Amino acid sequence: MTKLSPEIRVTSLVNQHNHVLLPDTALYDPKCHKLSNEIIEKIKFYVTKGNMGSKQIYPLLVANFPEQFICKKDLYNTIQKFKALYAQCQGDVQHIINKLLMLKDQEPGWIINTRLDPFDNRLVSLF
Protein backbone atom coordinates (compact mmCIF):
# COMPACT_ATOMS: atom_id res chain seq x y z
CA MET A 1 0.00 0.00 0.00
CA THR A 2 1.44 3.36 -1.03
CA LYS A 3 0.82 6.79 0.48
CA LEU A 4 -1.38 7.78 -2.46
CA SER A 5 -3.54 4.65 -2.26
CA PRO A 6 -7.23 5.25 -1.44
CA GLU A 7 -7.26 2.16 0.80
CA ILE A 8 -7.12 2.41 4.57
CA ARG A 9 -6.17 -0.63 6.64
CA VAL A 10 -6.44 -1.17 10.36
CA THR A 11 -3.42 -3.07 11.60
CA SER A 12 -4.07 -3.03 15.35
CA LEU A 13 -6.72 -2.03 17.84
CA VAL A 14 -6.13 -0.68 21.35
CA ASN A 15 -9.14 -1.18 23.60
CA GLN A 16 -8.51 1.88 25.80
CA HIS A 17 -10.47 5.11 25.85
CA ASN A 18 -9.18 8.59 26.60
CA HIS A 19 -12.45 9.50 28.36
CA VAL A 20 -14.93 7.96 30.77
CA LEU A 21 -17.71 5.98 29.10
CA LEU A 22 -21.12 7.09 30.30
CA PRO A 23 -23.46 4.34 31.51
CA ASP A 24 -26.60 6.16 30.30
CA THR A 25 -25.74 6.16 26.61
CA ALA A 26 -28.89 4.11 26.01
CA LEU A 27 -30.88 7.27 26.73
CA TYR A 28 -29.41 8.91 23.65
CA ASP A 29 -29.66 5.95 21.33
CA PRO A 30 -32.54 6.52 18.87
CA LYS A 31 -33.56 2.88 19.18
CA CYS A 32 -34.43 3.46 22.86
CA HIS A 33 -36.66 6.50 22.25
CA LYS A 34 -39.87 4.57 21.84
CA LEU A 35 -42.80 6.09 23.73
CA SER A 36 -45.04 3.71 25.64
CA ASN A 37 -48.65 3.15 24.57
CA GLU A 38 -49.84 4.89 27.72
CA ILE A 39 -47.86 8.03 26.86
CA ILE A 40 -49.10 7.96 23.26
CA GLU A 41 -52.70 7.77 24.51
CA LYS A 42 -52.09 10.76 26.81
CA ILE A 43 -50.62 12.75 23.91
CA LYS A 44 -53.59 11.85 21.72
CA PHE A 45 -55.98 13.01 24.46
CA TYR A 46 -54.12 16.29 25.01
CA VAL A 47 -53.99 17.07 21.28
CA THR A 48 -57.51 16.07 20.26
CA LYS A 49 -59.52 16.99 23.36
CA GLY A 50 -57.40 19.72 24.93
CA ASN A 51 -56.05 21.28 21.72
CA MET A 52 -52.66 21.54 23.43
CA GLY A 53 -49.23 21.94 21.91
CA SER A 54 -45.84 20.55 22.86
CA LYS A 55 -45.14 23.47 25.18
CA GLN A 56 -47.98 22.41 27.46
CA ILE A 57 -47.82 18.65 26.93
CA TYR A 58 -44.11 18.10 27.69
CA PRO A 59 -44.20 19.27 31.35
CA LEU A 60 -47.36 17.25 31.97
CA LEU A 61 -45.77 14.08 30.60
CA VAL A 62 -42.57 14.60 32.58
CA ALA A 63 -44.63 15.05 35.76
CA ASN A 64 -46.83 12.00 35.05
CA PHE A 65 -43.99 9.72 33.91
CA PRO A 66 -40.84 10.72 35.86
CA GLU A 67 -39.14 7.35 35.27
CA GLN A 68 -39.57 7.56 31.46
CA PHE A 69 -37.14 9.52 29.30
CA ILE A 70 -39.21 11.56 26.83
CA CYS A 71 -37.30 12.79 23.81
CA LYS A 72 -38.81 16.03 22.52
CA LYS A 73 -38.35 14.98 18.91
CA ASP A 74 -40.49 11.89 19.51
CA LEU A 75 -43.08 14.06 21.25
CA TYR A 76 -43.18 16.47 18.28
CA ASN A 77 -43.58 13.61 15.80
CA THR A 78 -46.40 12.03 17.81
CA ILE A 79 -48.20 15.37 18.16
CA GLN A 80 -47.97 15.96 14.42
CA LYS A 81 -49.42 12.52 13.75
CA PHE A 82 -52.53 13.33 15.78
CA LYS A 83 -52.77 16.96 14.64
CA ALA A 84 -52.91 15.81 11.03
CA LEU A 85 -56.00 13.74 11.84
CA TYR A 86 -57.50 16.53 13.95
CA ALA A 87 -56.80 19.29 11.41
CA GLN A 88 -59.16 17.78 8.86
CA CYS A 89 -62.20 18.90 10.85
CA GLN A 90 -63.10 22.57 11.01
CA GLY A 91 -64.28 24.32 14.14
CA ASP A 92 -66.51 27.31 14.74
CA VAL A 93 -63.66 29.79 14.42
CA GLN A 94 -62.68 28.39 11.05
CA HIS A 95 -66.25 28.81 9.80
CA ILE A 96 -66.36 32.42 11.05
CA ILE A 97 -63.06 33.27 9.37
CA ASN A 98 -64.18 31.65 6.11
CA LYS A 99 -67.45 33.61 6.22
CA LEU A 100 -65.63 36.89 6.93
CA LEU A 101 -63.16 36.30 4.11
CA MET A 102 -66.04 35.57 1.75
CA LEU A 103 -67.74 38.83 2.80
CA LYS A 104 -64.44 40.66 2.38
CA ASP A 105 -64.26 39.45 -1.23
CA GLN A 106 -67.72 40.89 -1.84
CA GLU A 107 -66.97 44.22 -0.08
CA PRO A 108 -63.57 45.65 -1.09
CA GLY A 109 -63.59 48.11 1.83
CA TRP A 110 -63.45 45.38 4.46
CA ILE A 111 -60.14 44.73 6.19
CA ILE A 112 -59.63 41.47 8.07
CA ASN A 113 -56.43 40.75 9.95
CA THR A 114 -55.80 37.56 11.87
CA ARG A 115 -52.92 36.87 14.22
CA LEU A 116 -51.88 33.30 15.01
CA ASP A 117 -49.72 31.97 17.82
CA PRO A 118 -46.48 30.86 16.12
CA PHE A 119 -46.07 27.81 18.38
CA ASP A 120 -49.56 26.33 18.52
CA ASN A 121 -51.09 27.87 15.39
CA ARG A 122 -54.02 29.12 17.47
CA LEU A 123 -56.00 32.24 16.64
CA VAL A 124 -54.83 35.00 18.96
CA SER A 125 -56.72 37.96 17.51
CA LEU A 126 -59.11 38.88 14.75
CA PHE A 127 -59.53 42.48 13.56
Q: Write the H/E string, N to C.
A: HHHHEE
Large-scale geometry: elongated
Task: State the secondary-structure class.
Answer: mainly alpha
Strand content: 5-15%
Q: What is Rg?
A: 25 Å
Give the overall average pLDDT: 82
Low-confidence stretches: none
The N- to C-terminal Cα distance equals 74 Å
Largest sheet features: 2 strands, antiparallel
- Helix segment count? 4
Helix content: 40-55%
Number of domains: 2
In total, the number of strands is 2
Protein name: 6794_t:CDS:1
Could you describe the 3D structure shown?
- It comes from Dentiscutata erythropus.
- This is 6794_t:CDS:1.
- α1 crosses α3.
- This protein has 4 helices and 2 strands.
- The protein has helices spanning 37-48, 54-64, 72-86, 92-106, and strands spanning 114-116, 123-126.
- Strands 1-2 form a two-stranded antiparallel ribbon.
- The chain is mainly α and 127 residues long.
- The chain folds into 2 domains: 33-89; 90-122, no CATH class.
- The mean pLDDT is 82.
Protein topology:
Layout: H1 37-48, H2 54-64, H3 72-86, H4 92-106, E1 114-116, E2 123-126
Antiparallel strand pairs: 1-2
Helix pairs in contact: 1-3
